[in-house]
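[User]
Protein folding is very new to me. Any chance you could explain this protein sequence and its structure tokens? I have pasted everything here:
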Amino acid sequence: VGPPKITLDTLVSNGSPILGDSNAPITLVEFGDYQCHYCHVFFDSIEEDIIKNYVETGKVKIIFKDYNIIGEDSVKASQGAHCASDQGSFWEYHDILYSNWTGENNGWASGTNLTNFAEEIGLDMNEWTECMMQQKHSQRILSSNEDARALELTGTPAFFVINSEGQVSKLFGAQPFEVFKKMFDAELKK
């Protein structure tokens, strides 16, 4: 059997809800790990500019996909985000995770902290806790990780830019905003 067939589905399914206008001509898919240093760098110094200049203007939509390569807490953090998603708060939870990042495997994404983050963004705690206990989103997280492996990703963050024709470009690592800008602008000119 050869390697799994890579389709557009491999890139966009099993991920987060869309951030931005679902009709935006460009899709930015990020494969990330909530504990990963460079994912945090991207969140902290680049993502905001992309959101301000491209997402809020209807040009780009973002999908986040889990690629849990650092440790058990990464998977728990992903569960937390998807359980928040059930209440329409995926991106709020995603943001609070990265805003509280302090390193890899040092306990910041422990169960207690994940619960505190959920309270902080005002989730229905009974529903969220129940979702966490049942590990309701395990399959989605597993599938997202399988997608990342099928794409032969070796680290996080990894980005895929999909244009309106379905053509895909790759970017690896926390590239400066200018790199994303150049790529988006080139696609938008087509």
